[in-house]
Amino acid sequence: MNCPLQGERKGSVNRIMRELNGISVVVPFLNEEDGIRKFCNTIDKYAEKFDFFLELIFVDDGSTDSSVEILKQCAFQNIKQVKLVKFSKNFGSHAAIRAGLQYASYEISTWLGSDLQEPLELLELSYEKIREGYNAVYIEKKSIKVSKANRIFSRIYSWMMRKYAVESYSSGGISTIVFDAKVRKYLNENMEANSSIMLQAMDAGFKSTVLSMDFHERSAGVSKWTLSKKMKLFIDSFVAFSFAPIRLVSIVGVFIFCIGVVIGISTIVNKLINPNVPVGYSTLASITALGFGITNISLGIIAEYLWRTYDAARKRPVFIVSDVVTIKECESDTQ
Question: Which domain holds residue 291?
Answer without folding.
Answer: 244-313
